[in-house]
Design a protein that fits this description.
- By secondary structure, the protein is an alpha+beta fold.
- It has a single domain, classed as q2cbj1_9rhob like domain (Jelly Rolls).
- The protein is built from seven helices and 14 strands.
- The protein has helices spanning about 5-10, 40-50, 60-75, 95-105, 115-120, 125-135, 270-275, and strands spanning about 30-35, 50-55, 85, 105-110, 140-150, 155-160, 175-180, 190, 205, 210, 220-225, 230-235, 240, 250-260.
- β9 (about 205) and β10 form a beta hairpin.
- The longest helix has 15 residues, at about 60-75.
- The chain binds 2-oxoglutaric acid.
């Protein structure tokens, strides 16, 4: 049965991204599990800017994490303030529990609120893989979940480092863990293979803080479908995004970002001097 009730359906936002911005003709290959990551896989990551893992976490761990996400949405931790709803949902007080669950787009900073989520970010095999991918001991510096609701919006193409006040040449690795099966139809992640090697690019405030649509190298788009528990690693400068969820069911994923231990913060101005296309009057 669809997760969209007729009442909620009317209020979900219309997606207006240009046609042809995502291609699913190239599909990511995966390595079997986190412990299969070795020299060959690190070389792949360094060349392509991403690495997909078929079974990163057990189904039990993923189901526990998904239940923890629902508990946070349901307000079981009264002190948790990190819930953000999909645009256009009106007064949240009028939503039923099910409508709240499927109306949430993002959870921010949850690992300290539920051990079922924290254990994933601290998993020994994950940290070992990150140690190799970063070439240094990893520090978790951001945790969030993008829970793409039924017919939820696109996340436009961007580089994650455009959001972080850290030196742009700091190696940053994002980790995306599928809680539901992610497919080309429900908004799986897409990456532009090798794009991290071009360095930082200007971002613009359009549908989001994003790369210019006309600059996306769609010919090198790779879609990353994953089963629940599958993991995507990507470089902080890799162009990536996700098209709208065209289905009637939510597509939930956790996201953790790691950087080498001991990196110090820069300022918004320093970040904008590099990534701020609008600020610098660039054309898009
Ligand atoms: O989960 C998604 O659909 C996209 C997530 C993403 O790229 C981000 O939040 O930076």
């Amino acid at each position: 049965m669809s997760q969209v009730s007729p009442a909620l359906e009317r209020e979900l936002p219309v997606d207006d991204h240009p046609a042809g911005l995502y291609s699913s003709s190239r599909v990511a290959e995966t390595v079997p599990c986190l412990s299969s990551i070795g020299e060959k896989e690190i070389d792949f990551f360094l060349e392509h800017g991403y690495l997909a893992v078929e079974r990163g976490f057990s189904l039990e761990a993923v189901q526990a994490a998904a239940a923890a996400v629902d508990d946070l949405i349901d307000g079981k931790r009264a002190d948790f303030r990190g819930v953000q709803f999909e645009a256009g949902l009106g007064d949240k007080a009028d939503l039923t529990r099910e409508q709240r669950r499927i109306g949430v787009r993002k959870l921010m900073s949850f690992t300290d609120y539920d051990d079922r989520l924290k254990v994933l970010a601290e998993n020994a095999d994950l940290l070992n893989a990150l140690d190799q991918l970063l070439g240094a001991a990893p520090d978790l510096f951001q945790d969030m979940a993008l829970l793409k609701p039924p017919r939820g919006r696109e996340k436009p193409w961007h580089q994650d480092c455009a959001f972080f006040n850290i030196p742009h040449d700091t190696p940053v690795v994002g980790v995306w863990i599928a809680l539901d099966k992610a497919t080309a139809s429900n908004g799986a992640m897409h990456v532009i293979t090798g794009s991290h090697r071009n360095g930082p690019e200007e971002h613009f405030k359009r549908r989001d803080w994003q790369l210019c649509d006309t600059e996306i190298d769609v010919a090198n788009d790779v879609v990353v479908p994953l089963e629940p528990g599958g993991v995507l690693f990507w470089h902080g400068l890799t162009h990536h995004g996700s098209p709208p969820n065209g289905t009637e069911f939510r597509r939930r994923a956790l996201q953790f970002h790691y950087r080498p231990h001991g990196v110090s913060e820069t300022s918004v101005k320093q970040r904008m001097d590099i990534f701020g296309g609008d600020v610098r009057g660039a054309e898009c």
